[in-house]
Design brief:
The chain has about 300 residues and is α/β, with parallel strands linked by helices. The protein has 13 helices and 9 strands. Helix 6 crosses helix 9 and helix 9 packs parallel to helix 10.
């Protein structure tokens, strides 16, 4: 089953020209306030009169997503909307009205509601940065936490691989439509669909773009109970993700080590505005992830009531 009638209706709405997530979320708010489910738009399209343009209403009544639905089903994709019980509460809490109204998912959807640490950082991180990312992800996965990242080169793929190699779980948040997804060679030998979830908030065939990557980073922050930032520059997606994390009032950790490269200049900026330094454990000579573990498990900022139900 690809999804509920509600999620299929939301997919039809998002498929319309000129209608994006903000408009769909406004329509979903109307449904909530009027006690209706989103599927009512499919059953009674006339309800959309005055809420969308006449042209959009006509397109909605005539658009046929059966071919797309079949392709998604054949690819093992499940639709998960904000009105579904499985939709991660952390995204609603973190992103509020900007939460993606629909997620396209493959793999183990239960991981989306697991206690998680997110990772972001430079595609061209130094050797020290890559080793720090691997070390952190490995230790956190061994401690039972899920690792969330964006499937890009550098820091992202390093943390995904480290989590799986440690016997843990990981969520891949794509910056493009899910029908573009392929298992990369660097991680193919460790792949296990029970221990991974692949998600996208974008239309299934939408290509990669800078704007998509920035939006994707907000979803990583939303899913995570804490974030680790590896070598962010002073501009670009990594430092923007760090600032988004701080705006959500989620714990942000920035590794500190000797001879910090220029590629980590953004770390210094974020450490001045609320990020927490992450050093080494003097006894193990590994990253001091104890601080992350303690924060994730006890920080009241993250354990909102809706999340407490999910994470028990």
């Amino acid at each position: 089953m690809i999804g509920t009638e509600d999620s299929l209706t939301i997919m039809r709405l998002l498929h319309l020209p000129g209608i994006g997530p903000a408009k769909v979320n406004a329509l979903l708010s109307w449904c909530e306030s009027s006690g209706q489910s989103p599927s009512v738009f499919g059953l009674k399209p006339e309800i959309l009169q005055g809420k969308v343009s006449a042209e959009q209403l006509s397109d909605f009544q005539s658009n046929d997503v059966e071919e797309l639905k079949e392709e998604l089903e054949n690819s093992g994709v499940h639709l998960l909307s904000t009105v579904d019980d499985e939709y991660p509460a952390s995204l609603k809490i973190g992103l509020k009205k900007k939460a993606p109204p629909l997620l396209y998912c493959r793999g183990n959807r239960k991981l989306l509601s697991k206690m998680s640490v997110g990772f972001c950082g430079s595609r061209k991180a130094s050797e020290k940065g890559i080793e720090t990312a691997r070390d952190c992800a490995e230790q956190l996965a061994q401690s039972g936490l899920n690792v969330v990242s964006g499937y890009a080169a550098g820091v992202d793929i390093t943390t995904h691989r480290a989590a799986l190699a440690a016997g843990g779980t990981t969520v891949f948040v794509l910056p493009e439509g899910i029908l573009h997804f392929r298992i990369k060679q660097e991680i193919k030998d460790l792949w296990d669909w029970e221990r991974v979830a692949v998600i996208s908030q974008f239309e299934p065939w939408l290509p990669w773009s800078v704007q998509n990557a920035m939006s994707r980073n907000a979803v990583i922050c939303g899913l995570a109970n804490a974030m680790v930032l590896i070598e962010a520059g002073t501009t670009g997606g990594s430092i923007a993700a760090g600032r988004t994390c701080l705006e959500m009032e989620k714990p942000l950790f920035a590794p500190v080590y000797e001879s910090m490269p220029e590629s980590a200049a953004g770390n210094r900026l974020l450490l001045k505005t609320g990020a927490r330094p992450l050093g080494k454990n003097r006894h193990t000579n590994k990253a001091a992830v104890e601080k992350i573990l303690e924060t994730v498990k006890t920080d009241e900022v993250n354990l909102q009531p809706a999340q407490i139900r999910l994470f028990g």
